[in-house]
Amino acid sequence: MTLETGHRIAIDYGQKWIGIAISDSSGLIASPVGSFAVTDLQEELSKLVEQKKISTIYVGLPIHLSGGEGESAVHARALARLISQLNIAPVRLVDERLSTSSASGDKSLIAKFGIDALAAVEILKFALEGERSQNRPFGSSLDDK
User: Fold this and answer.
1) Would 58 be classed as within a structural domain?
2) Residue 140, in any domain of the structure
3) Where would you tag: which of 16, 61, 77, 104 has the fewest CB atoms within 10 A of its CB?
């Protein structure tokens, strides 16, 4: 599996809010898109697809520090499956441990985009770094557990 050219999207799942980040087409820079109500996710993805060629969608998988998965991980996997059914691009799951705490530094960015979008940026940075080091899409497929 090789890397396709195109923008990558990362999604930070929450029960009420979804954070979205997007990369440049070369996969070097991750930028926040915004934080949106869960009910607006499909609309926001549609807007991005109209504007950009999307090569991969990364969904943050909330794994406990112990390595186990809880109810949030079940919901994130279900969301990833729903997004996959939209046939936008391949969907990959990425361990998001500590993404929200890593994102909580810049108060002006939090005010502008929301903490969830900045957590999505952290997820995307992690995935892009993994892509560069492995020269293939990062994370696990929806079928891996």
Assistant:
1) yes
2) no
3) 16
Q: Is residue 104 part of a domain?
A: yes
Task: For residue 82, give its domain range.
Answer: 7-134
Q: How far is the C-alpha of 125 from the C-alpha of 28, rounded, in Å?
A: 8
Comparing CA positions, the residue from 100, 83, 98, 92 lying closest to residue 127 is: 92
**Residue 14 burial by Cβ neighbours in a 10 Å radius (0-12, 13-18, 19+):** buried
| Alpha carbons 1 and 17: distance in angstroms, whole number | 32
**pTM score, whole prediction:** 0.90
**Contact present, 10 and 31 (Cβ < 8 Å):** no
For the chain, the domain total comes to 1
Place of tokens 């985009």: 113
